[in-house]
């Protein structure tokens, strides 16, 4: 309301959290993740996965992925230093735990775009610091339209993605929030609302105790 | 994204909730409650309290309060038909349970502007259907400025309100969310974020099971 009141409130420390978005392919998870991660207003950090697969010419080590060999991957995994990992077509992918814990400890939040299996793994390791959102398509017919419209996949691949979508959709009930992505702008606003609310949760705002003590210590 | 997808998504039923705002006097609870209740975008219902006090000439029975006698009040209370009640200066005030349950059952939300004692009572009766928000002032000095600026109270009353504020502030730790009301617009946006997020919570969206069954029943 006034410049003076703005200056008088110290910033209040809190624990960060990981916002996890999951959805079947085509429901908008990647588009939404990129949109919210690209908006500096939200100050979200992205994690850099490790992978054992070969680097592609367009990829930068330490930016797109950290490229490591199988031995290094197994060492991370057996030391419980991966928040989640998966094998895809013979290659291993994982999210290193330390950099994530560092970001959360500093009171910043991250966004992950992973499937329900990855979500389960992360939740088992960082329970209260995880906020999970499932994105549903408004209908399977619309999901098919979107996959066809983006024209990335062959008809066969589209059928496989739709068959997978039927399985993945059934995991909605394991998530904290569910967004039906009927309209991308609405879905984005929903995601913003979740970020706002989760940042205001009392349990996460570890600095409030000191803030209130400061209030009560003011002279009359 | 398209008119067609908009039409294809049915509205998904959910349980409503009560958004409770508490704060010490002057921290902005009433201003915020009125602002969000007056915005038709949020479709929030207000409850009408019952009271045993005399109707003032400006008040309309059934609008500002439902005016009842002490016997009727005691009957409501002993039948557990009040979500919360309090005695103030020898008069009794309470929130009838039935109209609230009707609104929530219809999937609509309500907003209550009550103190921590009322909050405890409502929470004990409607646990999961209650979302609680505590509004803190940025400082006690700012709280004093606001009370002086609104020029409603005598210096003595302001001192009493500030002494009370010191007690009430200590209840912040019983609430789900805490907003430091440093700037009214920011606080309003925080409240909107909480409403958006709480409406997306999976547990509340009892219609999602049927919605997903509908999705999965679509022909290939």
Walkthrough of the structure:
The structure is a homodimer of 220-residue chains. The first copy, chain A, has helices at residues 3-8, 29-38, 70-78, 97-105, 116-126, 140-150, 155-169, 184-200, 208-216; strands spanning 18-22, 50-51, 66-67, 82-88, 91-96, 110-113, 130-136, 177-180. By secondary structure, chain A is of the alpha/beta class. Chain A has one domain (14-205): P-loop containing nucleotide triphosphate hydrolases (Rossmann fold), CATH 3.40.50. Chain A has a four-stranded parallel sheet, with helices on both faces. A four-stranded mixed sheet of chain A has the order 3-2-5-4. Chain A is globular and about 75 Å long. Residues 1-9 of chain A have low confidence and may be disordered. Chains A and B meet through helix 1, helix 6, helix 7, strand 8 and helix 8 of A and helix 1, helix 6, helix 7, strand 9 and helix 8 of B.
């Amino acid at each position: 309301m006034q410049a003076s009141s703005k200056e008088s409130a110290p910033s209040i420390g809190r624990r960060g959290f990981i916002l996890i978005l999951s959805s079947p392919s085509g429901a908008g998870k990647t588009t939404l993740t990129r949109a919210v991660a690209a908006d500096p207003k939200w100050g979200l950090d992205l994690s850099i996965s490790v992978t054992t697969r070969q680097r592609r010419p367009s990829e930068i080590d330490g930016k797109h992925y950290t490229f490591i060999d199988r031995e290094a991957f197994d060492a991370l995994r057996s030391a419980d230093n991966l928040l989640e990992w998966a094998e895809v077509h013979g290659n291993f992918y994982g999210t290193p735990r330390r950099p994530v814990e560092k970001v959360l400890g500093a009171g910043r939040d991250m966004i992950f775009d992973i499937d329900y299996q990855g979500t389960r793994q992360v939740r088992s390791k960082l329970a209260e610091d995880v906020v999970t959102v499932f994105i549903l398509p408004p209908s399977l017919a619309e999901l098919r339209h979107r996959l066809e419209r983006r024209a990335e996949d062959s008809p066969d691949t589209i059928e496989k993605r739709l068959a997978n979508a039927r399985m993945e959709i059934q995991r909605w009930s394991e998530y904290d929030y569910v967004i039906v992505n009927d309209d991308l702008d609405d879905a984005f606003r929903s995601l913003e609302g979740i970020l706002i609310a989760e940042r205001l949760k009392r349990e996460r705002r570890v600095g409030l105790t000191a803030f209130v003590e400061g209030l009560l210590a003011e002279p009359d």
